[in-house]
Every structure is written in C-alpha cells, then in structure tokens.
Amino acid sequence: DAKTTQPNSMESNEEEPVHLPCNHSTISGTDYIHWYRQLPSQGPEYVIHGLTSNVNNRMASLAIAEDRKSSTLILHRATLRDAAVYYCILRDVPGGWGGSEKLVFGKGTKLTVNP
Amino acid sequence: GAVVSQHPSRVICKSGTSVKIECRSLDFQATTMFWYRQFPKQSLMLMATSNEGSKATYEQGVEKDKFLINHASLTLSTLTVTSAHPEDSSFYICSAPPPTGLGGGYGYTFGSGTRLTVV
User: Fold this and answer.
1) Do B46 and B56 form a contact (C-beta atoms < 8 A)?
2) Any bridge partners for residue B12, and if so which?
3) In this prediction, what percent of chain A has a pLDDT beyond 90?
C-alpha cells in the first residue's frame, strides 16, 4: 500500500506558484521522498527527490518538514503544461546504496492550471 | 538522462489474439524492469518485476500465464498479453530503476506507455 497521503485535486492559475502537499507520517530513516508527474496519456516522469534537506532543480523545489513527516512540491510559476497528476512516493533505500526497489503509486494529486 | 523506449504506443487487437509490448533502455543497462497497468482515471498498479536472466516476479492477483514477461538482455524487456480480452484493455507502462549502488537520489525512468484496446 502507498505510504503517502495527497489531496485528490488542486487548482491553480497560470503564472502563479503552486504548493502540492504530501503527508508521510510513517516515513523511515532510509526513505527517500520522490515526486513524479504524469501528463495525460503519458508515462510518469521524474520531478524531484529529497532525503532531509530542501531541494531545487529546474522543474521544481521540494520542501521537507524538519520531522520528515510531510513535504511540499513547489512549482514556482505554473504553466498550462504543468497540468498533470503529481505523485509523492517513498523509496526505501536500505544502506543508502539503492537497489531495485519497486515504486508503489498512490492516487496522486490532479493539478488543474487555469489560463 | 536515461531513456526507456516503449513500443507500440497504441495497439488495437482482436479478442483472443496476443500482443507484445517492448521496452528498451537506450543509454543504460536495465537489469530490472517494472511493469504497470493503469485503468482510466486510476493510479498505476504494479503487475510484475522482470529481472534479466531470471523469472519475473508477479504481484498478487496477476496471472503469470496471461502476462508473459521476458527480460532476455540488459536493454530489452517485453510483456506479452496472451489471449487478450476486452477487460485487458488498459494503459501499460514499463519503468526502470536507476543503476544499483548509486544511492536513493536518482529517479526512475518510465516508458511512454502502450494503450491496448481489445475489441
């Protein structure tokens, strides 16, 4: 079963920031927080990941709570092309090395971007 | 970055026939490939895990004789839906994890998906 909880849907206006929350209260010390998004009729694509510290990349920012029980994906300026289902997934990496752990998808958050 | 090429993107087949879906890792070696199925307006459901050179591992409730998985090389994994029926119509997606040993800080790569319609 998925170990994360996300709102079913969120709505934003174009050019405005979007904050997508994710709760993972049972996160363990070896869980990495991964975010993926799935555009309509496409396979998911990797967005960002983090372990303890906040992270930034060209697509988004990831803010991780100090207790790691929640995180927020931040799209700084939403565009119409950001309309997708966003999935927050925990990837357990025992020992820190990374194997071939399967990713379990929850229902995700469907983001609608209004022009 | 890593790319997984999935073909065909969509296929329509007659009930009772078999369909093969291919996933190739283009610029890296994928010793493991995950296969998912997604019904309309639902999330991805893991069907099975294929490992190069060994038998696939199927999730509970997935018929291994119906969904044949072959992972004969480090760059190719295939899913064959045998004796397809309309209820098998779905969106099938493959995914490769990052190379082992790199740590948890790398994303998984997904194919673009195959829309299967059985008529």
Assistant:
1) no
2) B117
3) 76
Residue A34's beta-bridge partner residues?
A: A49, A89
Which pLDDT does position B100 carry in this prediction? 64
Token readout for B51 is: 């490992």
Q: Does A45 touch chain B (CB under 8 A)?
A: yes
> What gap in Å lies between CA B50 and CA B63, rounded to an integer?
14
Per the listing, tokens 């997934």 go with A89
Interface test with A, best of B44, B52, B58, B60 (most A CBs within 10 A): B44
| Partner residue opposite A32 with nearest CB, options B46, B95, B105 | B105
Residue B30 has pLDDT above 90, yes or no: no
Average pLDDT over residues B28-47: 93
Could A93 and B104 be called an inter-chain contact, meaning their C-beta atoms sit closer than 8 Å?
Answer: yes
Name residue A59's amino acid: M
Taking CA–CA distances from A39, the nearest residue in chain B reads: B112
- pLDDT over threshold 60, residue B88: yes
